[in-house]
Task: inverse folding
């Protein structure tokens, strides 16, 4: 895939195939795995500006980042321009992040009902004010994560592009679906291309990329400066290797024996769990609150959202998934994974 290094402000993404921000998924454990498997940059989960303003411990935990996570964007959402500016200042002062990203694309009801996320696509003046306030509050580069529109009756993709650029954003990442459609239907790469032609700032395309062919089609049709991977990376950080080097990862090709491919998948699950435990140990160490779960138990609970993707396509995976709620240790999860892998081994 022919992508040049992407530059905006002081940020350079040498290979602009990046991990999307996803609530409940893209914590430091997943981000570091994706970086090690070829992701060019990563974003934090959605971080509430109001939560930062209220000194919410849970909100600060979302911004936990490992020392080796670069380039990385601090990803914030909110409706109040002053709160967004204050949150941006805090993100910059942590010294952990290479740039600041504003969410105006999340279609989840609890975000939209607050007038934040994709709801801002129905109020472009407010969106412009937020971008301007954030831009003036920080010295870090500022980008915007958005969609091609909220619905068919709201502002179109070119109006959104104009407001984002004129308000001072250094880069834009666009999911090529309307917010009302969530992840359903075909992404509109043609509209991404029209935005690319209208913009003077770089644009990263997002939506519907599950492999190399999807990414190549997006780049060919839209001419975007980079590609963002969301759900396609859950349980599959190898996707970045595929897109970076133009071939499927070794553990995902028929050249490699089935047993070896399954063990590679198992090893990655074990490593992901280990990193989740470490992340929770760090969070608990810095918190004075009473702990309902141990760090290991918390990690196992969090891993429940990832494991269905890791075992996708495996025979009899339902037996494992039905037991997940009772598996509260790393060893118990991996024991069940090993049983599943044995069931799926075949003669090569």
Result:
């Amino acid at each position: 895939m022919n992508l040049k290094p992407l530059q905006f402000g002081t940020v350079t993404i040498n290979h602009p195939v990046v991990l999307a921000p996803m609530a409940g998924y893209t914590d430091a454990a997943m981000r570091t795995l994706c970086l090690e498997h070829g992701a060019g940059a990563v974003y934090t989960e959605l971080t509430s500006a109001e939560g930062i303003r209220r000194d919410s411990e849970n909100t600060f935990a979302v911004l936990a980042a490992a020392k080796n996570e670069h380039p990385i964007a601090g990803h914030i959402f909110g409706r109040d321009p002053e709160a967004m500016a204050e949150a941006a200042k805090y993100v910059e002062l942590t010294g952990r992040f290479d740039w600041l990203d504003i969410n105006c694309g999340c279609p989840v009801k609890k975000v939209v009902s607050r007038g934040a996320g994709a709801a801002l696509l129905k109020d472009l003046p407010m969106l412009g004010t937020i971008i301007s306030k954030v831009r003036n509050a920080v010295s870090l580069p500022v980008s915007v994560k958005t969609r091609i529109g909220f619905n068919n009756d709201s502002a179109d993709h070119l109006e959104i592009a104009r407001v984002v650029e004129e308000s001072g954003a250094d880069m834009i990442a666009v999911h090529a679906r309307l917010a009302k459609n969530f992840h359903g239907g075909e992404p509109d790469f043609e509209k991404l291309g029209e935005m690319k032609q209208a913009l003077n700032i770089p644009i990263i395309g997002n939506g519907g990329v599950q492999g190399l062919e999807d990414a190549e089609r997006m780049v060919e049709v839209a001419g975007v400066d980079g590609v963002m991977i969301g759900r396609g990376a859950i349980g599959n950080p190898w996707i970045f290797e595929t897109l970076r080097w133009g071939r499927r990862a070794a553990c995902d090709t028929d050249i490699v024996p089935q047993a070896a491919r399954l063990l590679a998948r198992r090893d990655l699950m074990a490593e992901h769990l280990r990193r989740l435990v470490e992340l929770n140990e760090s969070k608990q160490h810095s918190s004075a609150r009473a702990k309902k779960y141990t760090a290991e138990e918390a990690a196992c609970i969090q891993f429940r959202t990832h494991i269905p993707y890791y075992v996708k396509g495996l025979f009899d995976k339902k037996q494992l998934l039905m037991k997940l709620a009772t598996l509260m240790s790393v060893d118990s999860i991996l024991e069940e994974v090993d049983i599943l892998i044995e069931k799926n081994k075949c003669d090569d």
User: Anything to note?
Assistant: Residues 6-248 form a domain with the TIM Barrel fold (CATH 3.20.20.70). The chain has a mean pLDDT of 94.
